[in-house]
Description:
This protein is mostly helical. It folds into 2 domains: 3-132, no CATH class; 156-311, Serine Threonine Protein Phosphatase 5, Tetratricopeptide repeat. 47% of the residues lie in helices and 4% in strands. The chain has 12 helices and 4 strands. Strand 3 (310-311) and strand 4 (320-321) form a beta hairpin. It starts with a helix and ends with a helix. 24% of the residues are buried. Keywords: ANK repeat, Repeat.
Amino acid sequence: MNTDEENKLNECLNLIIEKVCEVLTQLKSKQESTTSETDLSIAIPTTTQRTTITTTDDNDLLLDNSIQNNNVNTFTVDNDENDLLDTLTNDLQNILKHRLPELSKLFFTQRLTATILYTLKHNLKGLLLAVKAYPAALNGDLTTVQGFLKRYRDYKDKSGFWGTTLLYSAARNNHMQLVRYLIETVGCSVNAQNQGDINYILVTDNDNARPDPNTLGYDPDPKASSTALHAACFNNNLNIVKYLIDKGANYLLRNQLGETPIENGEGHQQIRDFFKDYLVLTYTNLPNASIPSEPILDCHDRVPNNCVWEYKPVKGFEWEEFTKSEHDT
C-alpha cells in the first residue's frame, strides 16, 4: 500500500465512521425524546418491537475494547428509523463505490440494523488505527503498537492491509524490543503466518508437490503464509532468529512458495552456520550432512543410519543413544 492508497483508505474510513456516528446520535436523540414524552403521559401497553444498542465511552479503553457498558440505550424500531438505516446503508455503499470500488462488493451488501451500529463503529476505528499500527511495527514504534493492541487485542495475530502480521514486520526489521513485547506481553503466536495468496495452492511439506512458479502465470508473493522466522532468516537478523526458535518457532514450516525459514536464510553465512550448529550435530551421525529441510519423521529416504536414535528408560530421566548394533536392527 503506497501513500496515496493509504490516504484514500483513511479518508474513506473517516467518512464511514462519521456517517455511522451521525445515525447513532439521531437514534439516541430520538430515544431520549421518546422517553421524555412517555414520562409526561399515561403508560399504555404496546407491542412495538424494540432493539437494544450498547454504547460506551471511547475514552474508556477497557470498555471500548470489550464493547460493553452498563449504560444500555433502547431504540424503538419504527418507519422513520428504518428509513434512517436504509439511507445509512446506501450512503456507505456509495462512499465505497466512489472511493474504494474494489471493496464495495465486500462490505455493506446487506441492510444495516440498529443492533450492530456501535460494533460497526468500533471495528471501523480499529481498521483506521491499523493503517498506522502495522507500519509502526515495521519501524519499531513500540508506543504506537502498544496503544493499538491495548484497544484492539484481537489483531495480535491478524494480517493487516499489507498481508503481514505485526510480529512478522517487527522481526523483519530486527526490532528485538518490539518482538519481545509482542510474544511475551501480548501473547502473539510465534508461528502465526501471514495472509495467504488466494490464487496460490497451499504448499505441502512434500517437496514433489511444490508448484513451479514459472507455470502459474503470475509472480507469487514470497511473504504469503510466511512467519516471523522466515522474515528474520531472510533479513539476516540472527538474534531475532535465536530468540524466536527459543520461543518455539517452527524452522521447517513452509510458506506458500514452499520455502522454510532455513531456506530463506541460505544467503547469509551466519544464519547457515547457526542452523548447522543447532541442527546437524544433533540430527544425524553422518559426516558432512546437510541442514535438514523437513522433520526426520517426514523424510522420504529415512533409514536407521541417517539420524541419531535415542530412548528414555521408563524410570529414568535422561535420554540414551542406541548403540551402532541397535541402530542397525
